[in-house]
């Protein structure tokens, strides 16, 4: 990779944004320069109005091996270095989670530490069936980051999350699907086809509806049942009056495919 090549690539084509970790010679290990670019590219996405799906990928042999321990060890003030790294990572993740567009993670190999968090924080995670998943923080005397202590209990339950974080087992892709960490696992020669199917479906779906689903699910973490139903009522009523809701209902009644992209303008 050329010295001037970006550490995080962003491409947008036909309403699909592809965000690629681009530090392949280091297994896409996370150091501060990569995380700064990650946060900056996430902010670039937040400022665009032409993106309906975001695909998160990684270049090279590994998806992401987690934090760069060598980079950490170079700093005399490790506390300050790690805090800066975590702050940039978390800022980028918060921006991505706040996007209306669904996030699709494509895990083609090992996802460790914060790499696992990147996959877990997506809305849909598709992995090759040879991918491996592990936390490994406590192996090196550290604690989890990347939002994993919030994400994993919700995805796989507190008991399994505790085991992953304390015992550091390595999950196969099939096990990751079984416990609910990722959405599906497919053979390597089917990965791109599976991703394309998901991306096409989400790109042509109602972005307003997709966004509402994301917000409602996040709100459910702290809402009571009654409060959540109030949020649902407000959401569905608002969507029904909006252009995409009108298009979807009209298309159903007219027995034709809905054109949500056209309705959204």
Automatic annotation (TrEMBL):
Molecular function GO terms recorded: trans-2-decenoyl-acyl-carrier-protein isomerase activity
UniProt entry keywords in alphabetical sequence: Isomerase
Matching CDD domains: crotonase-like (cd06558)
One Pfam family in the UniProt entry: ECH_1
EC id: 5.3.3.14
Family assignment from sequence similarity: Belongs to the enoyl-CoA hydratase/isomerase family.
Name of this protein: Trans-2-decenoyl-[acyl-carrier-protein] isomerase
Protein's gene: fabM_2
């Amino acid at each position: 990779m050329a010295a001037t090549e970006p550490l995080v690539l962003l491409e947008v084509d036909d309403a699909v944004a592809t965000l690629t970790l681009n530090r392949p010679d280091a297994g896409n290990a996370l150091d501060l320069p990569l995380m700064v670019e990650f946060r900056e590219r996430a902010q670039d996405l937040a400022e665009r109005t032409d993106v309906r799906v975001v695909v998160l990928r990684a270049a090279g042999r590994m998806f992401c091996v987690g934090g760069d321990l060598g980079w950490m060890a170079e700093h005399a003030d490790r506390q300050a270095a790690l805090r800066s790294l975590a702050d940039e990572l978390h800022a980028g993740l918060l921006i991505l989670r706040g996007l209306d567009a669904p996030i699709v993670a494509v895990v083609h190999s090992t996802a460790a530490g914060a790499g696992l968090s990147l996959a877990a924080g997506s809305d849909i995670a598709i992995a090759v069936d040879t991918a491996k998943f592990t936390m490994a923080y406590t192996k090196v005397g550290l604690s989890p980051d990347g939002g994993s202590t919030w994400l994993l209990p919700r995805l796989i339950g507190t008991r399994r999350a505790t085991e992953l974080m304390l015992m550091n087992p390595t999950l196969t892709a099939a096990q990751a699907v079984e416990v609910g960490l990722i959405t599906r696992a497919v053979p390597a020669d089917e990965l791109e086809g599976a991703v394309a199917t998901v991306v096409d479906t989400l790109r042509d779906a109602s972005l307003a509806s997709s966004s509402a689903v994301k917000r409602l699910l996040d709100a459910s973490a702290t809402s009571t049942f009654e409060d959540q139903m109030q949020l649902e009522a407000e959401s569905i009523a608002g969507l029904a009056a909006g252009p995409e809701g009108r298009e979807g209902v009209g298309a159903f009644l007219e027995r034709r495919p809905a054109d949500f992209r056209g309705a959204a303008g």
